[in-house]
Amino acid sequence: MTPDAPPSPAPARPRVLPRVGPVRSRAGMTFVGAVLLLLVGSANGLLLAWQSTVQHRITHTLSIDRALMQVLADLLDSETGQRGYLLTGDAAFLVPYTQGLGRVAAEMPRLAAELRGNTEQETRLAALRPAIDRKFAELDRTIALDRAGDRTGALALVRAGEGKAEMDEIRRIVETMRSREDELLIGYQQHAHQIETWVGLGSVVSVGIMALLAVLALREAARRAALSRFLPAELAPLLERGGSMEQGGGLRLGERRHAGIAFVDMRGSTTIAERADPETVAILITGFRRCVVQAARETGGMIDKFMGDGALVVFGVPEVRADAAAGALAFAERLEALVEAWNAGSAHDPVRIGIGVHCGEVFVGVVGDDDRLEFTVLGDAVNVAARLEQATKTFGVTTLVSQAALDAARPGDGPHGAAWREVSRTALRGRREGFPIYGRAA
After folding, report:
1. What is the pLDDT of residues 231-283, one digit of tens each?
2. How many other C-beta atoms can be found within 10 angstroms of the C-beta atom of residue 305?
3. DSSP state of 412
4. What span, in angstroms and rounded, lies between the C-alpha atoms of 316 and 327?
5. What is the pLDDT of residues 53-72, one digit of tens each?
């Protein structure tokens, strides 16, 4: 039996082979896991770089736009205070006059710092400064004449129109600067969406998308909490339902949106100031704003902001609405009725209003930090609505609407077609091309 002994070492082989496979498998899994972690980390790094760069640029641009609007609003407050003082002699009107002067003086250096390095905008700012100085010089001269006992001379200086010419020049420069910032916003958004597309391509599409969605979900939750704390009350319930601006770059990056725009202004503020004391003026402004709030609430509009005795109301923002233009038209009709009823039930002189309605593409987004967030609506559609509101004075009507607004509201499917008549096709002030505009049919 001795020759059969050599085969006995064979059992040693099974003790080696079963251990080779698991070791190699664990090494392969570790390598794949490391590669996946590296790829996911790279995707997250690109995303963070994208967020930091694009958010900074958009925030910077919106900050400039907000500062320009604030300077213009402060100038208007000062002018209103000056007019009220000269017409009534009540020193209380000098408070907004001096406060506006101080706010403009504080805002201009900040605006200059924001524009530093932008040669084109710095040139426009250099033209804006002396225009503002001339405007305040005109205001100061009238106040000085009145204090010297020559109120008639002060009012004559106002009627001469020097102050109006200066204010028109200031508005022109500010609108040009804001238009340039809006162009920059569009470029930044396009760049952001290109980067988003690049991040989504590659060998880790599924992992990258999951990581992106997780990051965006966390950021969106933080945004919703901030919105419910600081922004208009209309935004909070929409965000809780998850229906607000969740495509594209999100709330902080903003997006382009088709919206209906209504610009409202209370007429005859100077006349009211001439006949009423400051308390009565405040009561009238408050009553006017209540009418705007009620009309917006009933027709689905969101009040973007109040500006003295005016307001900007938007439809189809922040939640997409197919009837945004129809809502804006309904708002104008409802506000007219509310103001008429308010006038009928009050002892004050009748308050007249002007409303401009247009629709088109706008930029909507949120700018600021957790200490202060602001919802912003920008674009040419807003400017057109404002021009239409100003043109109501020229055509002697309460409301003017654009052809675009009527077309978007589908007048053939509702009552709007018969309710409006064409009043002009001439270009609005500050625009080169004309288009049909409509007033309420008699």
Report:
1. 555 554 444 444 444 433 455 567 788 999 999 998 876 667 677 777 878 88
2. 16
3. G
4. 9
5. 766 777 777 778 778 888 88
38/176 Cα distance (integer angstroms):
47
Residue 216 tokens read as 């965006």
In whole angstroms, what is the distance from residue 388 CA to residue 232 CA? 26
Q: What are the tokens at 169?
A: 């020049």
Detail the DSSP E strand segments found in 147-254. none
Report the SS3 class of residue 434.
Answer: coil
Contact 212, 47 (CB under 8 A): yes
Quote the tokens at residue 143.
Answer: 């106040």
Helix axes 119-147, 94-115, angle to 10 degrees: 160
| Residue 172 CB-density burial (10 A; 0-12 exposed, 13-18 middle, 19+ buried) | middle
Distance CA 308, CA 299 (A): 23
**Start-to-end Cα distance in the chain:** 126
Q: What confidence tier does 3 reach under pLDDT thresholds 50, 70, 90? A: very low
Asked if 308 contacts 73 with a C-beta cutoff of 8 angstroms, the reply is: yes
With b for 16 or more beta-carbon neighbours within 10 A and e for fewer, the 154-170 pattern comes to bbebbeeebbeebbebb
More confident residue, 11 or 163: 163
At residue 205 the predicted structure's pLDDT band, cuts being 50, 70 and 90, is: very low
Three-state DSSP at 256 gives: strand
d(CA 139, CA 150): 14
Between 162-200 and 12-88, two packed helices, what is the crossing angle to 10 degrees?
Answer: 170
Name residue 289's amino acid: R
Judge contact between 251 and 299, C-beta under 8 A. Answer: no
Evaluated on CA atoms 262, 267, 272, 278, the torsion sign reads positive
